[in-house]
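Handout, section 4.2: multi-component inputs.
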Amino acid sequence: GQNIDQPTEMTATEGAIVQINCTYQTSGFNGLFWYQQHAGEAPTFLSYNVLDGLEEKGRFSSFLSRSKGYSYLLLKELQMKDSASYLCAVTDSNYQLIWGAGTKLIIKP
Amino acid sequence: IAGITQAPTSQILAAGRRMTLRCTQDMRHNAMYWYRQDLGLGLRLIHYSNTAGTTGKGEVPDGYSVSRANTDDFPLTLASAVPSQTSVYFCASSGGGAGTGELFFGEGSRLTVL
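Output:
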């Protein structure tokens, strides 16, 4: 079967750095997405990785290792507005998106 | 209108009733999708449409139907609602296929079936 694993919940402190991990087992791989979803709102696109390595976009970075079936989202200089759920999704060999259940990130002052 | 609009935003429905969730986009995207989101589960694809006039079944299509008469509109119909269809429903669109490009989501429709 196809599976995306993320921690259910994480807590971090304002101003700190947090790393949210995502591991996947899918039938093929054609890219990995990260989305942010604030409570009661729609998911919004954060990043897309298709090649190994780190993609940096402001305070957010996303890393991919295809050989390990592993990605992480790194959030720096955390702000209270970063409190949200972070969704990992993988495109399989049929170009279907497989979604993880999401990681709820709680930021404390 | 900017992006994707869903209606209604919230609805309480008696079991057995018919319900249509509306979705309209103004980005001229070819591909559109309906997902449901339940606590503790990832987004699950109900139905999709790669272009106007075509539709396909996703992961959880039973009890739902869609149509795609034009590029902008992609309504989702529950023919006879059941309590297990209580969920938050998101409509989304993309310029390419879902697995290759960014998805743009509507604000969601929260449906409660009693």
